[in-house]
Specification:
Glutaredoxin; 5 helices; 52% helix; iron
Length: 106
């Protein structure tokens, strides 16, 4: 399985996926930390994370897969939502909580 196929399987295999630096318990950058905080506060309980620092192939190829250059990257229902700034903006507007509750209800 190619790295792009592995990324596709992660994105399709979980309703909410965050590709981040570090883990939810130990984020390794401020952007990943803020994204996790926003997702947690928005009620994401079924959150699947991928630590890109542990998988250099994923880290190198995810920007090509998603056409998004930075980390973290949030996917909901297989669709790229965006990075930290977009995740925080969606949280502040209440939109992230709505998206998450719809995802977890289905």
């Amino acid at each position: 399985m190619s790295v792009l196929e592995r990324i596709q399987a992660e994105v399709e295999g979980h309703p909410i996926v965050l590709f981040m630096k570090g883990t939810p318990q130990f984020p390794m950058c401020g952007f990943s930390s803020r994204a996790i905080q926003a997702l947690t506060e928005a009620g994401a309980t079924q959150l699947h994370t991928v630590n890109v620092l542990e998988d250099p192939e994923v880290r190198a190829n995810l920007p090509r897969f998603s056409n998004w250059p930075t980390f973290p990257q949030l996917f909901i229902h297989g669709e790229l939502i965006g990075g930290c700034d977009i995740t925080v903006e969606l949280f502040e507007s209440g939109e992230l909580a709505r998206m998450i509750s719809e995802t977890q209800a289905s």
